[in-house]
């Protein structure tokens, strides 16, 4: 009986030293559990060998006008297209109001090198490689879910939300680019 | 459920065991004496068929893993090695890949049986939710298994499906890299998919145990949807349904065996016999047939809705098409379970079946022209069925009179 009585009165009291110890112990255990869980999840992230392939150089010399080559950067395919004058003209003639993801042709190329279009070759919808020189806008057409891109790689129709991604790159000389 | 038990330990050893671990009693109660409605038709045999399918996949899968190599350089060749060199490898690999298709065929029949006969209604909501969870895990498992042979469809399927997660605002790209273990689908992706493909079937098996547990608390639904009222309405599971299920399994194994022995690749895609190439997407990329309805829903959303862009919209629609099944018991409030007694429901139900088959067909067609329009109509009907039609029917439909009991419906009123 005495034990019952003590428990009952304790419950009505202010938090005791013991309550504090319980909460403090529990908190430490929770932080410890989280600290152990994080490396178990983080091991899924890209490893050092994957991250090491971040920057490449590529020589544009052999690419004829109207030709597109596909190269690999960080495991991703990248289109390098030598655009024709007609391509550029067509891309520039498009009013921004027609675009789902408005960007001018100048914003997608480097000044003085507007014949070169460098883009990650994965459709921004779900990552398929679009087929070049096809689709309703003379650019790229993604066979997976029917997205059409124009001659500047901008999304024009279909489920893709964004233009083909231009990776960070710069011209080291007129014929040499560095991606990444 | 001990009240169903007719188990009396026959001797001292059984008595001794029964007092410590009543495993014999449990087996007798749940696998032999379990009182089962006596009017179950052949649609009800698919539960047992599914259990068999899971067993077949686990056994053949464990064997295939003894010969398979999860590495981008060797995976494709190791599957060919299994098919050409391993003793009976051609058959074992065929049973596993055909088995996946048969498994999904059976699960679709099982789900549509539940939809028609109202098996999701109270008191079987948890049973239904566990089933939907198993179905979703099956799709995840099958998807990861399809990546393992590392053919073109494997690679591009993995790319497309993992990319779904990049549609999530803000955290999408970090999650995508976490899932793939890189910037693109590559060796780390293949390795983890192999690990998870091996793990998930055992989690499915555990959920199947819960599914059966949740079945054995209220007992089976039945074709008239009237609850069991007395022991006259039931027969013991064994031998009546063990035999019926066994017969159905044999019949089910006939087309299964035909595929395995005569057309093991007919359900697959020729592009998957080309090794994965990260620079070329097959011109016509399609998932396995059993994922097509949901694939159609994914790509049918090609327009922005307010602040949701088309990509996220497609992902929400596809996820929603599955998740809406979880709340189905609360959307369909009609007190009558069986479609047999719901004259209006039946029309909408069969239209839903036809609609689902059309969604499957559309998933295999290119996303262009009329197909896109038909796909949008089908997606609209899919959701309208759950969100509008079922709730409205529950209010306006006048059901036919229900039989008083299972016995009455089986024997006719004169003999009841």
Automatic annotation (TrEMBL), chain A:
The keyword Nucleus is annotated on this UniProt entry: no
Keywords annotated in UniProt: 2Fe-2S, Cell membrane, Disulfide bond, Electron transport, Iron, Iron-sulfur, Membrane, Metal-binding, Translocase, Transmembrane, Transmembrane helix, Transport
Regions that span the bilayer: 20-41
Rieske domain ranges (all copies): 91-178
Keyword Ribosomal protein: no
Family matches, as NCBIfam families: Rieske_proteo, TAT_signal_seq
Subunit comment: The main subunits of complex b-c1 are: cytochrome b, cytochrome c1 and the Rieske protein.
Name assigned to this protein: Ubiquinol-cytochrome c reductase iron-sulfur subunit
Species of the source: Devosia nitrariae
Automatic annotation (TrEMBL), chain B:
The keyword Acetylation appears for this protein: no
Gene name of this polypeptide: fbcB
Described purpose of this protein according to its UniProt entry: Component of the ubiquinol-cytochrome c reductase complex (complex III or cytochrome b-c1 complex), which is a respiratory chain that generates an electrochemical potential coupled to ATP synthesis.
UniProt keywords, alphabetically: Electron transport, Heme, Iron, Membrane, Metal-binding, Respiratory chain, Transmembrane, Transmembrane helix, Transport
Name of the protein this chain belongs to: Cytochrome b
Subunit structure: The main subunits of complex b-c1 are: cytochrome b, cytochrome c1 and the Rieske protein.
InterPro entries assigned: Cyt_b/b6_C (IPR005798), Cyt_b/b6_C_sf (IPR036150), Cyt_b/b6_N (IPR005797), Cytb/b6-like_sf (IPR027387), Cytochrome_b (IPR030689), Cytochrome_b_C_euk/bac (IPR048260), Cytochrome_b_N_euk/bac (IPR048259), Di-haem_cyt_TM (IPR016174)
Sequence similarity: Belongs to the cytochrome b family.
Transmembrane segments: 42-68, 94-115, 127-148, 154-172, 193-214, 246-268, 314-332, 344-364, 370-393
Membrane topology type: Multi-pass membrane protein
Cofactor binding notes: Binds 2 heme groups non-covalently.
Boundaries of every Cytochrome b/b6 N-terminal region profile domain copy: 13-224
Keyword check for ATP-binding: no
Domain Cytochrome b/b6 C-terminal region profile: 227-404
Cofactor(s) it depends on: heme b
Compartments (UniProt record): Membrane
